[in-house]
Structure formats: C-alpha cells, structure tokens
Write a structure and sequence with these properties.
632 residues; 27 helices
Length: 632
C-alpha cells in the first residue's frame, strides 16, 4: 500500500463563501420564504436544530441528510415538501463551495509524490454528493477514496472513523490535513497519523466582528457578510498576501457600506448622476458600477479633477484671504512652494524673478502677497486663471455638468471641502447653481468654512491623522496619475497628468479591486444587499482600524508610501519598522515623527507592544506631574 495523504473536506479542501455552516440554513430559509419573515425564521431554526434532534431520535451520533429530512415538519411548512427543501439545501451547498487554493496545492504535490489520496468528513451529506462536488472542481479523481461519518456511524471527532479507515486500508504511512485542531490534529495523532493544520479559520479581526454581532438583530446576515469577507481573503493565488488580508478586512466592508449609503440617499433625493472625483474616488466609482443593476436610474461617472486642476481656474482674486481659504488652519504650515504648486504659478514666478525657497512666516507672507497683488502680477495670475477656466469649463460641459436636465452630486473622500468650493466657484462664474457632495469624513472645524452643502457619512467620527492617511493612500489607491490640467484634442477634452505624482501602490490597487469584486459578487449571488446591516459591520471594522492596531495585520501599510511624505520628497511609508533606539525614544516621551506610532510599534514588536505603550504612558504621566509640581 502506498503512503496515504488524507484531507478533511469542509474548511480544508472546500470553503463555504457564506462562512459558518448555519448560514446555509439561513440562506435556505430566505430563498424559500423571501417575504414571509415568520416562516423564514421558523424554517431556519428548525433546520439549525434538526441534526441534533434526529441524532437523539435515532440514538446515534452521526445521521445522514435523508434521515434529517425524515423529521421534516410538513404541516408547519405546507408550501414545500421535504424533498423540495432538501434539494434546495443541496443546491445552496454546491453553489457556496469553492476550492481552497492551499489545500489543492498540497493534494497536487502528494499525487505527484505517489501518495494515495483520501477525503474524510464528519458530515451528514452523502459521499456521492461530495464526490460529485469535488469532481466538478477537479479535486477528486477516480482512484481516490472518500469516507463520510454519516455512512459509517463514526467520526473523526471521536476517532472511530480513523480506526475504521485504518482497518480497511491498512496504511504503512499516513498523513492527514485539516482545519480543526481537535478532530484533525489531536485525534489523528492519537492513531499514529502525522497531522498538519490548514488554517482557513476566521482571523483575529473577523472573530472580533463575529463576537460583536452575536446579539445583534441582524446577526445572521452579518455572519454571512463576515463569511464573504473571509472568502475574499482566502480566495485566489495571493491568499497569503498582506494586501489581500488588509483589503478584505477593511476596504471591503468600509467602502462598500459607504457607496451603498450614497446610492440609497441619491435614489431617495432623485439624484440621477453621481460624479466620483479623482483620484480618491476611483475605487468608490468602481464599487458603484458593481451595484448598477440595483440602482438603474443612477448614472455613475468619474471626473478627472484635483486641487491642481481646479484651484487656479476657480481663482477670482489674488488677495491673501482668498488664497488662505483653500488651506484653512493648515495655512501657517504651508510653504510658498506648495502655494506655487497648487495654483500652478511657476511660469509667472520665473518671468518675474522671485525666489520661493523659504518658509511662509509672517514677514515673508506679507512680502509674498504684496508682490502677488501688484497690479501687473495679479493681472497675469487672473489671466492665467481665466485661460485655465476655459479648458476646465469645456471639460465640465463634455462630462455633462453644464446640462440643465441633470440633478447630480459629487462623491469624494472628504476632509476640508476645498475641492467642492473650487468646483462651485467655477460653476458660479458660469452663472450655474452650486452642487452638493457626499463625503466619507469631514473636519468639524471646516464644516462652516464654505457656503456649500454636503453630506458627511461619518459625521460623528473623530479623524486621527493615521486614518486620514490610510484612507487616502491605501483605501483610495488608484492606477492613474494626478490631474493637473486639460488639453483639447480632436474636439475631445482630455486630462493632463502629473508624471511626478506616481505612487508605488499597484499592490493595493489590485487587492482593492479583486476583493470588492469578490465581495459584491457574493452579495448579489445570495440577494443580500442590505445597507443597514453592512453599515453596522463597517462601523465595527472602522473602530478597530482607529483604536486597535493589535488586532490588525499591518504589514501592507509598511509597503505603501504616504502621499504627503512623497510631496515633501521623502520616501516614508504609512508605517515603518522601528529600531530599538526609536522605541526607547518614544518610551521616554520624545516626540515621534511617525504618522501612527502605535501602529509602528505593533508592526515592529507585536508581543511587547502593550508593555512599550504602557511604559510610554506611565513616563508621560510622571513628566506631566513633575511639570505641574514645578509650576506650583
């Protein structure tokens, strides 16, 4: 007898898209009773308990699906026969199961090495059905064996199934692969089998989400959503990628919920077109297109704009107050180089011989604006603004923004609202009404800075710097460069891109795209596009991202460059691996230059991070007390 390699089936070779086994029963009840909520709940509860009830009646530990449905309460569910319900359950199982890439790779290796392949499952489904499912996925071969607990009245869990297989096949050497520590590892090792764990379980952050929803009234739908998230994380050849993990666990629930909320509100307000603003709106626009069939009256468009492409054409005055308005409270930190860059004044400066390589302190600020508001300089700037306004107006007209019969709104990530102010300033110059915008988040101190209207999705959410950076640089990663202007070619207005704006974010772009595609496909397959439930889940993951770096796989964030750092000609990533010297400096309360110091510490020293943070807190508290005593 050749050496044996046996494999558990469920959550080892095959993964349910919907996650936990009970979710199949929930989907079954929804499918059969989509509008009758009472029958839906009762069928779900019956099927969830049916196996245990049947085992008690039959006085055995392992029962088959046929035996379970012998106890089907037909008087309670008169609309369907036992066979109809059973067949529907089998169909849902087949549709839900997908191959696990890791296990399939190991099976292939073992076949080539001459091992006899065996599949083992503690399951009520018949071996003929499992063989057919595995065969369709090219996993099961004619020479393979398959053993199911319900057909042997024995299980891996009590070890009896291993014993029966051993007596039947008499292997000289046996390896077993499975996901359950007790049944597949502990029990297998008791019978002289070499066990290997294949981890397809929910990860730490997904388990936290499952715990959070345990008593929620939408628990079943939310559990399916978390199952879909696990599926998006595990599916594909890059299942071990830190990017796929982060995108599945955070970008998918947070951004899909945001887009669904926008689409629902736009539909309610009779908005027929949404313009997603580049570049942050790229993945949001893609998600909106995935939901197109659910909101057919709403057209989703992508608008190539940026601060550089809009600030100058929106300029109607060169006085300090007008220019300061675009930067708000951050104006005191802005250098003249930044102003020149945003307003594209390089040509004017070179023509008028003004050096710009100094900080914008109070003295230089007055000097700069005094120069800028000279009659000849101001005229040059406003003429340049007028020329740029001509091009952007043509682009807006081409994209339908100047149409009278469109009720439209913009979509962006958010923060100050200066982009919306720039667009609406251009619209006002054309004697057109201002438009509103949907934002993921806004700074509270800027909500009355401009005379525009907007909706903030996370109105009450505190926005720490690291969240803003992660949303901008990871969540909103896009495959194209930043727009700096427009060019007319063959009567078509095309964006001009800034070659210096390239970000090394291709892995994030790919991971975001693939995972949202996968997740939305699941929502559609099971008709589970439930905005309210998804909003609950998004809030759970958002709070984890803000407050709990200890629960997150942070590696992907150490490979994504921060846009703000790039703009300042630095190569700093969102998170960095810290040296012991840097950690010591933090502990003794020296100011850190890192965007998210807590995240950096958990990335660098995950086991000792809680102690490092506690030491920092204690020393900081002690220093503050000493300062207070000295002042007294």
């Amino acid at each position: 007898m050749p050496p044996i390699a046996s494999f558990d089936i469920f959550d080892t070779c095959l993964i349910r898209k919907c996650g936990e086994a009970n979710n199949i029963f929930f989907l079954l009840a929804r499918k059969l009773y989509p509008t009758n909520l009472a029958k839906q709940e009762c069928l779900y509860h019956w099927r969830k308990e049916a196996e245990t009830i049947t085992c008690k009646k039959q006085r055995k530990d392992n029962v088959s699906l046929d035996e379970i449905y012998e106890n089907y309460p037909s008087k309670r569910f008169i609309e369907y026969s036992a066979k109809q319900v059973k067949d529907t359950e089998i169909l849902l199982e087949e549709e839900s199961l997908i191959p696990n890439t890791e296990a399939i790779s190991i099976i292939s290796q073992k076949r080539k090495a001459g091992y006899q392949i065996i599949f083992i499952s503690d399951m009520y489904l018949p071996s003929s059905l499992l063989q057919r499912i595995l065969g369709k996925l090219n996993i099961f071969k004619p020479e393979d064996y398959l053993f199911v607990s319900c057909e042997y009245n024995a299980s891996k869990r009590n070890g009896n199934l291993y014993q029966q297989i051993k007596e039947k096949i008499k292997p000289t050497y046996w390896e077993h692969y499975g996901d359950n520590y007790y049944s597949d590892i502990y029990q297998a090792s008791k019978y002289g089998i070499k066990p290997t764990l294949i981890n397809t379980s929910f990860n730490k952050i997904e388990n936290i989400a499952l715990k959070c929803i345990k008593e929620n009234r939408n628990q079943q739908i939310l559990s399916c959503f978390i199952g879909f998230i696990r599926y998006t994380r595990l599916y594909g050849t890059d299942y071990n990628s830190s990017f796929r993990k982060f995108s599945s666990n955070f970008v998918v629930p947070i951004y899909c919920a945001y887009v669904l909320d926008i689409l629902h509100k736009a539909y309610k307000e009779n908005i027929n077109t949404l313009y997603f603003l580049a570049r942050d709106g790229w993945i949001l626009h893609h998600i909106a297109k995935l939901f197109k069939e659910n909101f057919p009256t709403i057209e989703n468009k992508y608008l190539y704009v940026s601060r550089k492409s809009m600030y100058l054409p929106s300029l109607t005055s060169t006085n300090e107050e007008k220019i300061q308005q675009y930067f708000g409270n951050a104006f005191k930190f802005i250098t003249i180089n930044h102003i020149i860059s945003y307003f594209k004044l390089e040509s004017i400066l070179s023509n008028n011989n003004l050096g710009v390589n100094f900080k914008l302190n109070e003295t230089n600020k007055q000097e700069f604006f005094k120069w800028l508001n000279q009659e000849t300089i101001s005229a040059q700037v406003l003429n340049l603004a007028k020329k740029e306004r001509t091009y952007i107006t043509k682009y807006f007209k081409q994209e339908g923004l100047l149409s009278d019969n469109q009720n439209y709104a913009f979509v962006d990530v958010g923060w100050k609202g200066s982009g919306l102010e720039a667009i609406n300033s251009i619209m006002e110059s054309l004697m057109l009404p201002k438009k509103s915008c949907f934002y993921w988040g806004t700074f509270q101190q800027y909500r009355n800075a401009y005379s525009n209207t907007f909706y903030t999705y996370n109105y009450n959410l505190n926005l720490p710097l690291h969240i803003i950076t992660i949303i901008e640089d990871y969540f909103s990663a896009s495959p194209h460069l930043s727009t700096i202007g427009y060019n007319v070619s063959n009567k078509i207005v095309e964006p001009i891109f800034d070659e210096k704006s390239k970000m090394n974010n291709e892995k994030a772009v790919t991971a975001n795209l693939e995972t949202v595609n996968c997740f939305v496909e699941c929502l559609k397959q099971y008709d589970l596009i439930d905005k309210e439930a998804l909003l609950i889940l998004a809030d759970i993951f958002t709070q984890q991202l803000i407050h709990h770096p200890e629960n997150i796989d942070l590696e992907a964030l150490s490979q994504i460059q921060s846009f703000e750092e790039k703009r300042n000609n630095k190569k700093k990533t969102i998170l960095q691996h810290l040296s012991l010297k840097e950690v010591f400096s933090y502990i003794i309360n020296k100011k850190s230059q890192n965007i998210w110091i807590e995240g950096c510490i958990y990335l660098s020293y995950p086991k000792t991070a809680p102690y490092i943070l506690t030491a920092h807190k204690v020393i900081k508290g002690a220093k503050n007390k000493i300062k207070h005593l000295i002042k007294r």
